[in-house]
Design brief:
It is a single chain. This protein has 269 residues and is an alpha+beta fold. It has 2 domains: 133 residues, no CATH class; 123 residues, Roll (SH3 type barrels), CATH 2.30.30.100. It has 8 helices and 7 strands, in the order αααααααβββαββββ. A hairpin with a 2-residue loop joins β1 and β2. The longest helix is centred in the middle third of the chain and has 28 residues. The radius of gyration is 27 Å and the shape is elongated. It comes from Collimonas pratensis. This is Transmembrane protein.
Length: 269
Amino acid sequence: MNVALPALIVFLLLLPGFIARSRFKRAERISLDYSPFGQIVTEAMLWNCVFHPLWLLAAAWLFGRTLQPLLLLELLSSDAASQAKAIQGIALQFSWICAYFLSLYAGAWIVPNGFRLMITRYRLDRANAGWYVPWLRFNQAPWYYLLTGADFDEEQRPDLISVSAIVNVAGQAVLFTGILDNFFVDANGSLDRLILEKVMRRPLSADKPDGASIAEELERFYVVEGDYFVLRYSEAITLNIEYIRMDRLGDDDVPEPAVDSLSEADAHD
């Protein structure tokens, strides 16, 4: 008991920081967090340095309850007599201590989620947003930025995202193109599949002839019937991501190839 009790107390004190850290970050890897152990602990401790003082100030201001450092030190002591005395003191205010920790854990879950929603809503994590970006950017979610257009400010935000992929079908390279509806990553953070709408396809060999009109260009494509097309990333040879703004479309309401675009030369590098 002399060893187990202090370890339990330290765990309860540090747990809010780890909860807050896990809720604030946006990571596409869901199986394991491969961040350096020192980085994980440091980030959790920083969150603890925010939450514990705030909750202690709130408890003192609203309910007149203050931290008793001597009681905490006796709990962390290896002396059985000191621990027994501290346990008796805790028993006298057990309901207040439970309320403190339960509300603290709830706050550590809710507040970082609110911050993350605010960052996403106001696009504070854009690459060119300002000097504070390194602290707000979700560095473990590269596909999120590429496939949602989150790096654009509100005025330049794309209305549609077009995806073109070359897929090997029966030994022939076929180009599929469509409007991105959603995407999913696997447990290791790699892109798993893309959900596309309005999909068309054509053999890669049927390239655009010089001087072809838009109508002639569209004739090279065959419409893929269906509401949604699932494109597996493992089957794609290359991907091309095209950000489309409706105010940049031509009079024929056909996306121009000159819209903002970003290509991934090799989908498997």
